[in-house]
Design the sequence.
């Protein structure tokens, strides 16, 4: 039994499925409570129903996009863990990046070929630790923060005016992306000896195809008003980039 | 529907915070416990040292991101919506636009009781759809596993990370291409001159991110003065 077989075994489905089921129950509880509270406050049930229906229809296509993310990660982490992470709490761009960072600390890469049980459990732990802060912050500070906002003392968060915080976030992600793209360029030029240009060019090709695909999806979304593509664009661009790797190695 | 004291809405909010804290705490325990449970099944518990080093490399970036998300999205989503959104994830790519869409559709405004109810309904419904679609998808995926693990497809799965960063590069570089070129050039030169750094790429996010933020700050100051 290979590690990937173990990662997609019944026990793993049971562990991950139980957590997904717990979160599904939480969603139902919040939904029913909000519905009852809305009715008790005299809100129009037709409007509440409209909000639920709109949200259901809005979410179907992006959810299929998220499913593509599960497929993308399943080759290295098995199916159940990416299923759990992308059903609950996670997001594709976050999960992949953190998993890669954890693999690096173990001297490995995010790949089915090199995945070991040690690497997997460490990757899974780091994925959980890195993205728990939103839940912690809302639990500790959420009540006071919302109370202060409702008193009108702090309205900057909802402001439309651009602040340095927005720009800093963009810059932070630019820095993150640049580190990885820089490493692919360096690996191509000096991966097999400094300035020999005999290193692996596949990552650069894959990144270029994914970027081009993303550009195409963005253009269709913005210029052709195909906004529904937004929910698919990252996952579909990744799959196209990954397909380029397969074609390049035929 | 005002927020004055001792209305049924106040009771609802208080109970929502209590419930939200409890389920967040339970979810946290489940998500942190799962790697250990899976590790004991696999016969390999997580390497805490490696996880700590990984956290220093990338966790700090995501911690800052979480703080910003908390500050920005909580007022938009209200209490119930925020607890659910932070538990169920996929905020930027789905939950936020979904809740905003529902809110605009019924004309609810931020900070109102209507917004609180509509956001919660919207995010709960959206999360349930994702859970259902993924569960059905995974059921269909399972028979395809031998195909997905075939040697011919391994180059694809070995390049998940470059594919992600290619897509993200377009997303973020287009926001400020001039800013992006400098850290990219610096990183490319560094990795070319010191190829051994490739094994520590996630650590290089820190200087690269610091450089990009520094350049962004200089530009922001310049624009503010102009």
Sequence:
């Amino acid at each position: 039994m290979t590690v990937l077989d173990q990662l997609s075994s019944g026990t793993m489905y049971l562990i991950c499925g139980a957590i997904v089921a717990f979160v599904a129950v939480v969603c139902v509880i919040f939904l029913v409570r909000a519905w009852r509270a809305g009715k008790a406050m005299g809100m129009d049930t037709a409007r509440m129903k409209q909000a639920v229906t709109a949200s259901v229809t809005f979410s179907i296509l992006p959810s299929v996009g998220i499913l593509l993310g599960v497929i993308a990660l399943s080759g290295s982490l098995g199916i159940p863990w990416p299923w759990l992470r992308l059903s609950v709490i996670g997001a594709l761009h976050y999960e992949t990046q953190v998993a890669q960072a954890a693999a690096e600390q173990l001297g490995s890469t995010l790949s089915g070929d090199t995945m070991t049980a040690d690497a997997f459990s460490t990757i899974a732990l780091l994925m959980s630790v890195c993205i728990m802060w939103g839940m912690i912050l809302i639990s500790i500070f959420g009540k006071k923060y919302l109370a202060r906002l409702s008193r009108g003392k702090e309205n900057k968060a909802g402001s439309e005016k651009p602040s340095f915080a927005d720009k800093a976030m963009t810059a932070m992600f630019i820095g993150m992306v640049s580190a990885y793209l820089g490493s692919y360029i360096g690996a191509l030029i000096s991966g097999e000896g400094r300035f020999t240009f005999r290193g692996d060019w596949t990552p650069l090709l894959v990144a270029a195809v994914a970027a081009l695909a993303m550009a195409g999806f963005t253009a269709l979304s913005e210029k052709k008003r195909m906004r529904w593509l937004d929910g698919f664009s990252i996952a579909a661009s990744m799959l196209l980039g990954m397909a380029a790797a397969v074609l390049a190695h035929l | 529907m005002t927020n004055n004291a001792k209305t049924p809405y106040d009771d609802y909010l208080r109970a929502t915070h209590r419930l939200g804290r409890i389920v967040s705490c339970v979810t946290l325990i489940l998500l942190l416990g799962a790697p250990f449970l899976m590790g004991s099944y696999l016969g390999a518990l997580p390497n805490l040292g490696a996880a700590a080093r990984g956290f220093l490399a990338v966790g700090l970036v995501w911690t800052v991101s979480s703080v910003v998300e908390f500050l920005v999205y909580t007022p938009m989503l209200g209490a119930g919506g925020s607890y659910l959104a932070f538990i169920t994830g996929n905020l930027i790519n789905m939950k936020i636009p979904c809740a905003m869409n529902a809110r605009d559709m019924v004309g609810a405004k931020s900070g109102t009781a209507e917004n609180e109810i509509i956001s919660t309904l919207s995010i709960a419904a959206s999360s349930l759809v994702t859970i259902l679609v993924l569960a059905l998808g995974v059921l269909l995926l399972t028979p395809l596993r031998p195909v997905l693990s075939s040697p011919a497809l391994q180059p694809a799965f070995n390049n998940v990370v470059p594919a992600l960063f290619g897509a993200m590069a377009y997303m973020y570089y287009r926001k400020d291409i001039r800013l992006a070129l400098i850290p990219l050039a610096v990183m490319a030169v560094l990795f070319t001159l010191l190829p051994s750094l490739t094994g520590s790429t996630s650590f290089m996010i820190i200087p690269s991110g610091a450089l990009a933020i520094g350049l962004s700050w200089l530009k922001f100051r310049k624009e503010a003065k102009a």
Summary: Residues 81 and 120 of chain B are 4 Å apart (CA to CA). Residues 159-225 of chain B form one domain. Chain B has two domains: 8-147, 159-225. Chain B touches chain A through 169 residues (CB under 8 Å).
